[in-house]
């Protein structure tokens, strides 16, 4: 029996954007001898905005482990076999946003005049400074504050993100005291040097839980110029679909580039990450290459060819999880506690489709 959507909970296209929506994918037509051609997606990027991020900190602070766990899907327990970096390790991430991550060896001071600082720090969008919370952190704090003070004069647009790392093995009381002490010492050092309200953000992290992915999500969001637009669109989707929380996540890294502006909880984000892991495992077994929509044929054949991947799971730790593919790199994941979600799915699909069209237009415009 068809479900009638409540008009009050439908998103009008004019609510999202008054401009006409672009096509969601480019179809590359093969040679006549090929019966089908696979759908290819436009490269994901934010115009010419392709920032570079630096991972910095003292030797053995955990920089290389962080990079491998987040962007190379390495298991945390495998990082004990990694050797300390002795040269600059450059990694390129070509996903929803093209950017580079440079892992700088901690035993080298790149601001002492022996190195070309402009080639290293030029074009940098953010510096992630990893502080080992289990070590004597006064030395790394002094190195960090010296770096901030020097780069503020030559590269004032760089943002700084301090990962207070390896906090998982500390007791709860000691962990809070350590985090507070590190933040206070860095703030005092910068204030004494004459720098008030520095662009520094702090995140407690560990590679053995989801805190490292949450922290990297905040870093990426700080480099995405369209973040306010995405948040506004997601607020509309959350209200119209009655989601408790909704995210846009990168499929491979599980980093979320945006969410609605309601308070975020680690529990819901962990649910989304576990949901994506399950979907990816199943996709490896049962996925297939989708074909472009045929020029001729039944309406059902065209609809099947044009479908994007979606999934819904009920009673996942008390929540209903809804996933919808945005493009080859991004998915929307909504978390709902609505008891009658199944009866409103037609309305949810309609609203998410309009959101998808609007977001793809924002991405295309860069």
Would you mind describing this structure in some detail?
- This protein is α/β, with parallel strands linked by helices and 366 residues long.
- The protein has ten helices and 13 strands.
- It has helices at residues 13-16, 63-71, 117-121, 138-154, 172-192, 211-223, 227-241, 266-286, 299-306, 345-365, and strands spanning 26-27, 39-40, 52-57, 89-94, 98-103, 124-132, 159-165, 200-205, 245-250, 256-259, 310-316, 319-325, 330-336.
- It has a six-stranded mixed beta sheet with strand order 4-5-3-6-7-8, sandwiched between helices. Strands 10-9-13-12-11 form a five-stranded antiparallel beta sheet.
- A hairpin with a 3-residue loop joins strand 4 (89-94) and strand 5.
- Helix 7 packs antiparallel against helix 10.
- The chain is globular.
- The two termini are 42 Å apart.
- The relative contact order is 0.15.
- Mean pLDDT is 81; it is low at 1-5, 17-49 and 302-306.
């Amino acid at each position: 029996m068809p479900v009638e959507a409540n008009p009050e909970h439908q998103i009008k296209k004019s609510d999202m954007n008054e401009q006409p929506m672009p096509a969601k994918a480019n179809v590359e037509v093969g040679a006549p001898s090929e019966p089908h051609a696979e759908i290819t997606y436009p490269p994901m990027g934010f115009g010419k905005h392709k920032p570079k991020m630096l991972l910095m900190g003292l030797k053995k602070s955990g920089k290389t482990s962080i990079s491998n766990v987040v962007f190379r899907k390495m298991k945390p327990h495998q990082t004990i076999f990694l050797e300390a970096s002795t040269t600059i390790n450059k990694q390129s991430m070509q996903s929803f946003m093209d950017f580079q991550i440079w892992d700088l060896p901690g035993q080298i001071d790149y601001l002492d005049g022996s190195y070309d600082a402009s080639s290293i720090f030029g074009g940098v969008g953010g510096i992630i400074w990893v502080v080992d919370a289990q070590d004597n952190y006064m030395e790394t704090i002094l190195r960090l504050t010296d770096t901030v003070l020097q780069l503020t004069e030559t590269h004032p647009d760089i943002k700084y993100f301090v990962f207070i790392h390896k906090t998982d093995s500390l007791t709860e009381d000691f962990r809070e005291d350590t985090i507070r002490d590190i933040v206070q010492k860095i703030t005092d050092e910068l204030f004494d040097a004459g720098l008030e309200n520095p662009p520094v953000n702090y995140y407690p992290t560990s590679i053995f839980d989801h805190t490292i992915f949450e922290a990297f999500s905040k870093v990426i969001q700080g480099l995405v110029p369209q973040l306010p637009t995405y948040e506004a669109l997601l607020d509309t989707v959350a209200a119209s679909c009655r989601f408790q929380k909704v995210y846009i996540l990168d499929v491979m890294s599980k980093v979320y580039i945006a969410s609605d502006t309601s308070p975020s909880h680690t529990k819901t984000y962990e649910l989304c990450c576990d949901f994506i892991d399950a979907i990816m495992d199943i996709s490896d077994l049962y996925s297939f290459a989708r074909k472009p929509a045929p020029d001729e044929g039944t309406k059902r054949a065209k609809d099947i060819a044009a479908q994007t991947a979606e999934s819904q799971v009920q009673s996942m730790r008390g929540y209903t999880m809804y996933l919808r593919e945005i493009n080859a790199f991004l998915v929307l994941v909504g978390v709902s506690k609505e008891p009658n979600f199944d009866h409103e799915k037609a309305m949810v699909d309609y609203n998410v489709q309009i959101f998808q069209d609007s977001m793809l237009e924002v991405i295309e415009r860069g």
